[in-house]
């Protein structure tokens, strides 16, 4: 039985870097966790978000971590079905955990505020990026993500700059 969640059902203003935490009354079978699905609502369609799963030592607390930041101001739902089982073989009662991300900004150490966005939102019709500079670029060596901090004062997002996430393309293997 699902005892609690974070975020809670119908939470709003959930941070884009959040993971979902689930607490069960029984130890869960880690092999069945892939049946927990995180869905993002895009243009009236549910699109599955790539996640990874982890448990605590008791296997009763589960963390579902998106592999990328969640999108700002977006509806999400985490679903669990009867194929998710406890270690004793008990089937999980069906559930849906709905929440919405907020429009978060990231503060830098020097007092500037950056709005988190993705490169798709900064492309011109010709495909070029709209960045005004000066820029700072850093890479997450674990995911391959590139983060571009645009310190330009003419941000169309109303902040002092923007923080752009560039995700590596997945190669077909």
What are the SSEs and their pairings?
Layout: E1 2-6, E2 11-14, E3 20-24, E4 37-42, E5 45-49, E6 51-55, E7 61-66, E8 75-80, E9 95-101, E10 105-107, E11 113-118, E12 135-139, E13 146-150, E14 161-166
Parallel strand pairs: 2-9, 11-14
Antiparallel strand pairs: 1-3, 3-7, 4-5, 4-8, 6-7, 8-9, 10-11, 12-13, 13-14
What does this structure look like?
This protein has 173 residues and is mostly beta strands. It is 0% helix and 43% strand. A hairpin with a 5-residue loop joins strand 10 (105-107) and strand 11.
Beta-strand content estimate: 35-45%
Q: Strand sequence of the main sheet, in spatial order? A: 2-9-8-4-5
Let me know the number of strands: 14
Low-confidence stretches: 154-159
* Secondary-structure element pattern, one letter each: EEEEEEEEEEEEEE
| Helix coverage percent | under 10%
Helix count equals 0
Structural class: mainly beta
Summarize model confidence as the mean pLDDT: 78
- Radius of gyration using CA atoms only: 19 Å
Largest sheet: 5 strands, mixed
Give the overall shape, derived from the CA principal axes: elongated
Q: How far apart, in Å, are the first and last alpha carbons? A: 39 Å
């Amino acid at each position: 039985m699902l005892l609690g969640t974070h975020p809670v059902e119908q939470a709003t203003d959930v941070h884009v870097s959040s993971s979902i935490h689930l607490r069960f009354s029984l130890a869960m079978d880690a092999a069945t966790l892939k049946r927990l699905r995180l869905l993002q609502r895009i243009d009236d369609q549910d699109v599955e978000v790539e996640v990874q799963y982890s448990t605590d030592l008791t296997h009763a607390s589960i963390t579902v971590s998106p592999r990328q930041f969640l999108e700002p101001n977006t509806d999400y739902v985490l679903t669990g079905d009867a194929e998710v089982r406890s270690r004793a073989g008990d089937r999980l009662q069906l559930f849906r955990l709905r929440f919405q991300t907020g429009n978060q900004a990231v503060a830098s150490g020097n007092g500037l505020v950056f709005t988190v966005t993705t490169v798709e939102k900064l492309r011109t019709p010709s495909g070029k990026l709209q960045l005004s500079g000066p820029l700072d670029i850093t890479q997450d060596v674990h995911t391959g993500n590139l983060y571009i901090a645009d310190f330009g004062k003419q941000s169309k997002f109303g902040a002092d700059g923007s923080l752009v996430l560039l995700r590596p393309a997945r190669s077909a293997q």
